């Protein structure tokens, strides 16, 4: 057992007093409880764009050992109740659960664009509720060219409160992903939310119990955050999670915004500690890869999925 792992276990024992999952004893040695989160396949995050049906995604995810799949909302909207039931039965046989769906309402732009997108949300939410896909995510753009921080905060909180209300009617949770890289939040006139602490303030302002975090190791890393920050969260605070690695030879403050690696590719991000924290919290949702990697994108679809599955399995083996 490595020094880092011993330190983590010691900290976790102390953390159990503040509501974290307790450790168990095996042969007199404290060990973490088993992981509850699933290895999820989101093809669009790894440059795979040919899987246009949910059934195709489920089939290839099962082939490569994934445990959950992202939601292809447009495909599901076109299916009959009978077709949806058949799909769910196939997923049950494959032992696949749902990952996250993406919020297609563009709440970051002008009012007309926002309202147009919002009109379509209730119908989408009803289909997701019907199939039991109860996790949705969106990102918070960490800069703006017109709105200052307070103006942007008020508009974002108001719009996401309305969106979350529609989703709550269908028992769907909404995860917010903050965007950490300085190269992004400093790229425009007004910087905006780009840390976990700021996102907590936004979630509190939204005031809906179905709103939480969509975590991302790259944003956690580029925000200068650590395991202690993760331990302030509970399972109910986390809706989804992205896993990736950072570019070697570049400090966390200067990491590029849209260039990353598959999990454990460089070892720059402390993936083991991150995943161990999720285990200790008892997080039970999907974890998907989001590398923003040109080499991966240039592979054919089968190769990209195979490489992603290999990297994810290696990462999960750290806590299995």
UniProtKB/TrEMBL annotation:
Keyword terms, alphabetized: Isomerase
Domain of life where this protein originates: Bacteria
Parts of the chain that traverse the membrane: none
GO molecular function: isomerase activity
Record InterPro entries: IolE/XylAMocC-like (IPR050312), Xyl_isomerase-like_sf (IPR036237), Xyl_isomerase-like_TIM-brl (IPR013022)
Domain Xylose isomerase-like TIM barrel: 60-314
Sections of the chain in a coiled coil: none
SUPFAM superfamilies: Xylose isomerase-like
Protein name: Sugar phosphate isomerase/epimerase
Species the sequence originates in: Parapedobacter indicus
